[in-house]
Amino acid sequence: MSISETARRPGAADRLRDALPKLVLSPTVAIVAVFVYGFIAFTFYLSFTDSRILPSFGWVGWQNYENLFRIRAWDTAVANLAIFGLLYIAICCALGLMLAILLDQKIRAEGAIRTIYLYPMALSFIVTGVAWKWFLDPGIGLEAVMRGWGWESFSFGWIKDSDMAIYTIVIAAVWQTSGFVMAMFLAGLRGIDSEMLRAARIDGATNFALYRRIVIPQLRPAFMSAFVVLAHMAIKSYDLVIALTGGGPGTATELPATFMYSYTFTRNQMGIGAASAVIMLMTIAAIIVPYLWSELREKS
Questions:
Q1: In whole angstroms, what is the distance from residue 234 CA to residue 205 CA?
Q2: pTM for this one?
Q3: What GO terms in the biological process aspect are recorded for it (predicted)?
Q4: CA separation, residue 253 to residues 143, 154, 160, 165, 261 (Å)
């Protein structure tokens, strides 16, 4: 064997160095495979069984899904999700875009204002729910304060009203997340070519036309990212609802996530709860998979 071939042959140290990243990551990969994807697969299986208080292996096929769509509480949860999701996404995007445009004007104390807007995102949804529950409670919150100041006719009891309670969830969720959406849009605005904007201004474009024809169309990736993030957060919303309204009054603020928990762990209908969890997972996948596919196609 020649000296050059001996030099090219990797030694034990080289092989160890090449294998070290795989060795370090392998426990994490194994844990994720078992405790994430393994339990997802197990949930799929349970949705086709007669599981009740504990997992069972009696196969019932699509019966749980048929029963799920006959339950009025599930219909209520889906309708509430439609209201909550549409308002949550629309208001967060509109408010986030306006705040981003405001900060993009290079105003004073931009850093401090950006921190204030982003601060709610650092809180957990449980903290947000409890804080807004106190604020909206007619006995100790906004209504009590306004009446204490002399406005005796002031009334704001949405959190106790079955027709309006779902909108209190929207208010709290928008308050927490709009700053995060603002940061996404602000990053997109800062990435737009300033020379293009300068050329448009020289050509006589007004600010309104500038944003409508140039700026906002170039924020399409930010809009798509915001939509995907907000949509999946809306579908899996649980802790905010539990902390703020507990799903009430009645089932007025019931969402699929609270329905899934209730039927799985409270009503001992694990098969139906697993079926609702699978429906939620498929809905999230229907949003995320096309987005990832389009992003990968653009990069390729």
A1: 38
A2: 0.88
A3: transmembrane transport
A4: 21, 24, 11, 6, 14
Say what percent of the chain tops pLDDT 70.
96
Q: Half-sphere exposure of residue 263, counting CA atoms within 13 Å on the CB side?
A: 25
Location of structure tokens 């987005």: 291
Q: Where are the beta strands (DSSP E) in the chain?
A: none
- Domain architecture of the chain: domains with CATH: 3-46 (no CATH), 71-297 (1.10.3720.10)
Residue 50 DSSP code: -
Residue 293 pLDDT = 87
CA angle, residues 42, 44, 49, in degrees to nearest 5: 90
Name 272's Cβ contacts closer than 8 Å, sequence gap at least 6: 64, 67, 68, 71, 263
Phi, psi at 149, each rounded to 5°? -85, 0
Q: Strand, coil or helix: what is 59?
A: strand
Q: In this model, does residue 179 exceed pLDDT 60?
A: yes
Cα-based distances in Å from 15 to 4, 12, 23, 145: 19, 5, 12, 70
Per-residue tokens: 119: 């601060």
State how far the Cα of 296 lies from the Cα of 110, in Å rounded to an integer.
Answer: 34
- What's the token pair of residue 183? 């940061």
| 8 Å CB contact between 60 and 270 | no
